[in-house]
Amino acid sequence: MIFYPKEYDVIVIGGGHAGCEAALASSRIGCSTLLITMNIDNAGLMSCNPAIGGLAKGQIVKEIDALGGEMGKAADHTGIQFRRLNTKKGPAVRSSRAQIDRQDYRLYMKTVLERQPNLDLKQSMVDHVLIKNSTVYGIKTHTEEGFVGKSVVITPGTFFNGLIHIGLVNFPAGRMGDFPSIALPQQLKELGFEIGRFKTGTTPRLDGKSIDFSRLTPQAGDDAPIPFSFSTINQLNNQAVCYITYTNHKTHKIIQTGFDRSPLYTGIIEGTGVRYCPSIEDKIVRFSDKERHQIFLEPDGIQTNEYYPNGVATSLPYDTQIAMLRSIEGLEKVEIRRPGYAIEHDYVNPLQLKPTLETKLIRNLFLAGQINGTTGYEEAAGQGLIAGINAALTAQEREPIIIDRSEGYIGVLIDDLVTKGTKEPYRMFTSRSEYRLILREDNADLRLREKGYQFGLLTHEEYEHFRKKKKAIEGELARLRSIQIRADAQTNEALVRLGTAPIKNPATLEEILRRPEVSYKTLSVLGYPILEEISPVVIEQVEIQIKYAGYINRQEEHVEKFKKMENIKLPFDFDYRKIPGLSREVQEKLIAIRPVSLGQASRISGITPAALSILMVYVKRIGTV
Amino acid sequence: MDTYHDTIAALATPVGIGGIGIIKISGPFSRKIAERIFRKKDKINQLLKPRYLHFGAVMDPSSQEVIDEVLLTYMPASASYTREDVVEIQCHSGYLILEKILNLVLSHQRVRLAEPGEFTRRAFLNGRIDLTQVEAIVDLIQARTGSALMQAASQLGGILTEKIHGVKKNLISLISHIESAIDFPEEEIEIFSTEEVLGELKGLEGEIKALLSTYEEGKLFREGVKTAIIGRPNVGKSSLLNALLGEERAIISHLPGTTRDTIEENINIHGIPLTIIDTAGLPFYTITDPIEEKGTNRTRDKASQADLVLLVLDQSSPLTENDQAIFEEFQRKKMVIVLNKADLPAALNPLSVSPALKNNAMVSISAKYHQGLEELKKVIHGLIIERKEISSPPVFINRLHHKISLEKADGGISRAIKSLEAGMSQEFIAVDLKCSLDYLGEIVGETTTEEILDQIFAEFCIGK
Predict the structure, then answer these.
(1) Do B294 and B407 have their domain in common?
(2) Which residues of A17-53 are buried (b: 16+ CB within 10 A; e: fewer)?
(3) A219 touches chain B (CB under 8 A)
(4) Cα separation of B360 and B351, whole Å?
(5) Residue B58, domain CATH
(6) Are residues A594 and A505 in the same domain?
(7) How many degrees, rounded to 5, is the angle at CA B311 between CA B309 and CA B314?
(8) Is residue A396, in this structure, part of any structural domain at all?
């Protein structure tokens, strides 16, 4: 083995959504970084549907952006249709979603990687991580080149022992058209990592000129799209339309004819599937009384006429796929360009990770993305960002960061993984967060911008922009709180005109704005000036913070209690066997997970309040001895 | 458990056993609470001198009702077990009294019910107990939790728990509907309208309120099973009372009509509290003495209100018309026939009495010589348990815990209804519903997010 003369601080293996964020974060922090991937041209490639965002996922993208990640900017640059979901509901559960030009996104990401100072791109397959004294110090490629790095981040996506299934045909592949990674997962297994198998699937890709769009319902983007990135200033444009169609009784009959050659129903696929993205065959089996299933035909890009039929992921045999699709309205003459397939891949039990995403077995080794048992681009990117930041901080011998459950969905995601593990591919939902009303898209910058800046992930301009916004919000909140209006006839007439009750006693503008009938803009009707120069995002924030103050404050009280428990730290090498009174079962759980705080310990299943009391007493003892 | 600055209170003695019960309060508000509810006998000097035993009464400040005469001690932080201000109230150990006082203490908004072992934990954390005693604390915490779990287990399977499970199930179903509408807006799933959610919420509210009212009705636990001893004069009713109490409470003589008024006493039979009412004998003759007439009227009142009557017959003399008349008057009541004076030659053949009378449980005793009492207690216990008057031994603290949890769960539902009526979006409703779910979980077990997701994916076809 020949060692490459340059030594890196951080080496990132894999150029998917996790790998890109990890490499960019590390190099932006100032670490010399190597991104090594099997095919540089496929860096940032979306393997499944050409879309980013959605419920809870949109929040994650905003959090990535607030921390100085790339995904939000990339989506804004390459999005071809933007929609906001749940606009009739409250601000906490409104989420952004965009259709993305697949090739454009990949190119954008490649360009950003190429231009990034401190970052080298190299194309190769990594076979081994180099380890001494349970600490990683570099990697070795399949062509016997060695690279030295202080920390290593592994982001293999579906490539670890990837096995593609189409009907009864199966073959090893990382993704359709890519080699699988075989040696590295083997090494991890030998190092003592618990490896499991998950399965995911994707849909056939369709030839647009064979689709009869005239019979389908179009779905357009929003009139005034809101960008993902807090740094995006340009007006976003919708350039594409999606179409909606449905399966029918005939489709379901055809699908059933393929069951005897389905890898899912003949027991060939062993991995656990994604419950939230079931294959079409799974849907008609589990919900046999449902007469039709919705399909969104999503454009793959502007330069291409390929379509992604979202809703019909399948591993049925090729002929069944064609017949099934052709039974669907608008697709009667459809041509399949690339068949749908299922892919099984290895993942590592995430309970073997610290909340920093460093492995407990090997120091300075970090894992991010699908290898940790998740599904989704956004979930992968969020982890990649945190793993990249922590790999860099570790290389610089600085304290790693943990985003906690009250700070972001990224925190919820990682905490769930490393505390509870996962028995199926993990996807984020807003219902997973106990502080949902606080973890909104609109305030992701207020939650995380400071942290991003602190680690050097933001430009000075980005940070200044944020500071100005924050100051404007605080100033306007203070102003509305300070202005009192009189309960005179003129005021009350105006209030009644707004459809709200008159006042008997003087009230502040804040109190008036709290009423559901009153918006910030209508305050001017009361004869009090609103600030003309104030930006819409500031107004939005002021309105949300005032109108939902009761609910928000209640959640913040919960957060305060939560933080107290999080701040009681438990040392990594804490000897739980020496604590009398803890049951063996509890001891074993604590030893397996090694929680970083009493708060994390409290979320481990089977840890009773009594066990927590005992722990608290012991922690206190350690503190006082 | 994160807050060591709030004030906690709990019962420090077991309930129902022993003559006095102690309620312990620890924390910065202890003294304020004592001053609010305690009135010293010494009307001039109401000052609570530390570390003195003060005699007085606990009084509900809102109704001015005196609840019990008590002894109260105030120990400032420097001299207390927990190193916090501690107040101990010693009172009579009846369910009703202890609970009323504890509820009164807990009605102060800065006080909450202590967790198992919390006084000891505070003592440790405040440096009152030496570090070497940690293990003892741990044992204590576990022992208390263990017994709490046993208590909980004894209530599990009970009707109450089953009902709470039912409410919880309905709540989870509603939450999963709301959550799926929030997280999957693009799916074709059935979405509850505001009216439907409101209907569900009102239903849940009704169920929880009904459960809470059963707690209020569960007076048997708190006041005891009202048990009247009845019979014609001079069959030994007061002797039976004394025998059951194990003390000479009622004056007895061989003269008929010695007991002129009713006497009430509390006893505990195998964990079940009984209020025994000794009554004046019901004579067959026409009463001319106005005092005696008042006495017999009272007897009739008490006996008709009782949950259980013990009809005492003198087995050393034949069954009289008087006995028969009393039996017939109260035969609809749950009854035990007590054949007293087993120490004398028998003159009454229990097999020859009327079939209606024979249908009741019969126990032969000698109140004078304390014979057959255990058998009588067994029969009484069996009768109460069998008739499902009480499904299991009462668990005072747990029940109070349940009540508090249910009230909080109810509060969550009420807030959700309010939010919904104010036009709030469903994620705001979900916050309060999850809060309610947590409180129900305190009684019947926690619900994880994963379980809600399971419900969603079992019920709806979701995902693309």
Answers:
(1) yes
(2) bbbbbbbbbbbbbebbbbbbbbebebbbbbbbbbbbb
(3) no
(4) 12
(5) 3.30.1360.120
(6) no
(7) 160
(8) yes
Type of residue numbered A336:
I
Cβ separation B428–A551 shorter than 8 A? yes
**Which residues is B214 bridged to in the sheet?**
none
Token output for B361: 């449980």
User: At residue A96, does pLDDT exceed 60?
Assistant: yes
pLDDT value at residue A140: 98
Alpha-helical runs (H) found in A498-548:
509-513, 536-547
Across B14-24, average pLDDT: 71
Q: Complex ipTM, two decimals?
A: 0.89
Measured in angstroms, the CA of B2 and the nearest CA of chain A are apart by 7
Per DSSP, A140 falls in state E
Does residue A258 sit in the same domain as residue A169?
A: no
**Considering the entire predicted model, what is its pTM?**
0.79
Over residues A497-511, mean pLDDT = 91
- Indicate whether B197 and B303 sit together in one domain: yes
Tokens of A470: 């924050």
Q: Which of A88, A298, A429 has the most B C-beta neighbours within 10 Å, making it the best mutation to test the interface with B?
A: A429
Q: What is the pLDDT of residues A289-343, one digit of tens each?
A: 899 999 999 999 999 999 999 999 999 999 999 999 999 999 999 999 999 999 9
User: Which residues in chain B are contacts of A548 at CB distance < 8 A?
Assistant: 428
Q: List A175's β-bridge partners, or say none.
A: A178
CA distances (Å), A541 to each of A209, A362, B419, in order? 45, 44, 21
Question: Do A442 and A299 have their domain in common?
Answer: no
Q: Which residue has better confidence, A583 or B217? A: A583
The DSSP code for A373 is T
Nearest Cβ partner for A277 among B135, B426, B463: B463
Mind spelling out the 3-state secondary structure of A10-65?
EEEECCCHHHHHHHHHHHHHCCCEEEEECCHHHCCCCCCCCEEECCCHHHHHHHHH
Q: Is residue B110 part of a domain?
A: yes
Question: Can you give the CATH number for the domain in which A426 is found?
Answer: 3.50.50.60
Based on the fold, state whether residues B212 and B91 are members of the same structural domain: no
Is a pLDDT exceeding 80 seen at residue A533? Answer: no
pLDDT winner (highest mean) among A56-70, B49-63, B386-400: A56-70
pLDDT at B205 over 90: yes
How wide is the angle at C-alpha A381 spanned by C-alphas A241 and A282, nearest 5°? Answer: 60
- What's the structural domain count of chain B? 2
What is the number of domains present in chain A? 4
Please compute the mean of the pLDDT values over residues A272-293 and round it to a whole number: 89
Instruction: Tell whether B362 is covered by a domain.
Output: no
For B239, other C-beta atoms within 10 Å of its C-beta total 23
C-alpha distances out from residue A474 to A466, A481, A614, B458, Å: 12, 11, 43, 45
- Read off the pLDDT band of B4 (50, 70, 90): low
Say if residue A373 is in the same domain as residue A502: no
**Torsion angle of C-alpha atoms A410, A412, A413, A416, degrees rounded to 10:** 160
Q: Tell me the count of A-B CB pairs closer than 8 A.
A: 122
Find the mean pLDDT for residues B398-426: 87
Domain boundary (A307, A341, A375) is at A341
pLDDT score for A358 = 98
CA-CA distance, B281 to B283, in Å (whole number)?
6
Do A489 and A535 reside in the same domain of the chain? Answer: yes
Asked if B283 and B219 sit in the same domain, the reply is yes
Please state which of the ranges A168-172, B34-38, B205-209, B253-257 shows the lowest mean pLDDT. B253-257
The CA R_g of chain A, rounded to the nearest whole Å, is 26
Q: What are phi and psi of A284, to 5 degrees?
A: -75, -20
Q: Which of A274, A516, A613 sits opposite B141 (nearest CB)?
A: A613
Domain that holds residue B389: 157-310+319-324+367-464
Contact A90 B424 (CB under 8 A): yes
Q: Kindly state whether residues B297 and B399 are assigned to the same domain.
A: yes
